[in-house]
Amino acid sequence: MIHNRRDFLQLSALAGAAALTTPLAGFAWPGQQKKLGIALIGLGGYATNQLAPALLQTQHIELRGIVTGTPSKIPVWVEKYKIPEKNIYNYDNFDKIADNKDIDVVYVVLPNSMHAEFTIRAAKAGKHVICEKPMSVSVKEGEAMIAACKKAGRQLAIGYRLHYDPFHLEMMRLSREKVFGEVKLVEASDGFRAGDPAQWRLHHALSGGGPLMDVGIYAIQGARYTIGLEPTYVTAQAFPKTDPQKFKDIEESLAWQLYFPNGAIANSFSTYITNVNRLYAAAEKGWFELNRAYGYKGQEGRTSQGPMQITPINQQAAHMDGVAKAILENRPNNVPGEEGLRDMKIIEAIYASMAAAGKKLKIG
Amino acid sequence: MIHNRRDFLQLSALAGAAALTTPLAGFAWPGQQKKLGIALIGLGGYATNQLAPALLQTQHIELRGIVTGTPSKIPVWVEKYKIPEKNIYNYDNFDKIADNKDIDVVYVVLPNSMHAEFTIRAAKAGKHVICEKPMSVSVKEGEAMIAACKKAGRQLAIGYRLHYDPFHLEMMRLSREKVFGEVKLVEASDGFRAGDPAQWRLHHALSGGGPLMDVGIYAIQGARYTIGLEPTYVTAQAFPKTDPQKFKDIEESLAWQLYFPNGAIANSFSTYITNVNRLYAAAEKGWFELNRAYGYKGQEGRTSQGPMQITPINQQAAHMDGVAKAILENRPNNVPGEEGLRDMKIIEAIYASMAAAGKKLKIG
């Protein structure tokens, strides 16, 4: 368990997640003088309420540009974050960002169906890319995004903030160090009640899918890193829709099971009609869980020996700082495109199993 | 939430579970003078460590007889519980219990495959019957048991102690009174690590099935009474065996999904290889859960508004007192054979779905 700051620093180092939200006295990271500049593409809720405020806390990266299709949003951002006129783009002139030396990294925060296009355009413009999850709406798109960034010699990172969150790092550690023996079972569920019927996530053309793509992906992630292996087979069940009008394009609720090569299993659930939010691991000699697990804050952790004592951090700041540091040090980041692609392969297999009445299917 | 003794009494009355472990001053139940006499059939761990000690705390029923196939066990019981010689039977001479006025109720605590035979023999001997869960190893046997008790004019109760447990009564109340709105989702899992390979529960001829029959049945129960409806369809998945030798006769781990007529769903898991023990309900405006949920003690309850404040009771004493009181008052008990039969129909559908590669099947 993480009991204090020193434990957390050790844990961060162990996990390779050297993302800190406060400077260390007398210690300078290599390249600390230089901060990377980031531009946010898409000024929706996540960019506005999470990413931009987090970028006021980051050590290695700072907000310098915005890309938006809604000109009316611009004045607020200019005033609040002192964005210079020359660092403001729209979706049409975005490619000119290639000539802008202020911007090293582009963060794609658009609806899922636009991730591939803007990741590839950003890579072609010579920028490193952070792309929100899910990385794409298909495996094929994900592969093209990875290839584009590779060809451009730029990093691709997925918006998997929880890889930098101390609660989830503790789940990974408890599994990896076999503190309670080998993990045999994970129960991981993530769902919420989707309100506004007009929101893009309810429309397949923009989202590529329903709660599985949106939040179920966190349960997939949780199962993978809490078991510490890659699943090989999947079964999945679609539940009947209680609101067929609202969810006419996408699944409303589903369950799925992941089968891991060592016999470990994960049973998961995701939905747009109710709140559920948990990552539970049963191991040979005990259990450990986060409940709630996947939010921006409010995590609680417990093990069969008692509560986890962990101090929350700003996940978004830690995530962007972690990626920035990897770029500055010219080493791979912790959440590369390949990590996103593994989830896309699992998601495609889950949708295929649901379509085949729950048939057990090989992943990938 | 249950905050004090008065709340618990009100709750017990509401739920029809008027099973109290301490007498109420100045208040006499109808028939309180008369205590029923019970005989335990099968002196294994549950009878020895749970039921017999609980019968020292009951108000309406007391231990007067034993039925065992192992004569070496008799002296300890005679000494500890003052069982008279004339109230001791073996499996061959058991039917003579018909002539024994000391014994009103027989509690069948034998391996599952013997439940039907001894329930029917006890009914024919004119005794009321409490039968441990699962009530039988098939729907057909369960129907025969109900018919036999009906024909004999005697009550049949299943060993569903949790219907008398204040934590579970609170889950039922929160659902029934829609304290957090309508329940949309239940996650219910129950499993443990089965040790001794020689134990009867690992052998299909005695158990009729694996963890589903043994502990998964609690997750089925939990889903049913927390949603407050009967499921109509089921899907189920068997997981690959990690110890095919130990579990050659039975499933090792499985998941299943119950589909309720109002669109509510339950996702469940059961296993013999690791500990998992939880009943979680997500409703429209909040959630409530027991974790751990199904043990003889150690329950913890929480809701989205905070911890449940509930004082644990002796479940077995409450259960047997509750059934005894129903018998004394000549009204149906809370856990009749029909309640057990509903679970057997679900269990048979789960096994059928697993055998049909997870096909969605109608229950019953």
TrEMBL record, chains A, B:
GTP-binding listed as a keyword: no
> Which residue intervals define the domain Gfo/Idh/MocA-like oxidoreductase N-terminal in the entry?
37-160
Q: Which organism is it from?
A: Chitinophaga lutea
Query: A Gene Ontology molecular-function term?
Result: oxidoreductase activity
Spell out the InterPro entries in the cross-references.
Gfo/Idh/MocA-like_OxRdtase_N, Gfo/Idh/MocA_oxidrdct_glycsds, GFO_IDH_MocA-like_dom, Glc-Fru_OxRdtase_bac, NAD(P)-bd_dom_sf, TAT_signal, TAT_signal_bac_arc
What is the name of the protein in this document?
Gfo/Idh/MocA family oxidoreductase
Domain GFO/IDH/MocA-like oxidoreductase as annotated: residue spans = 169-288
- What keywords were assigned to this record? Oxidoreductase
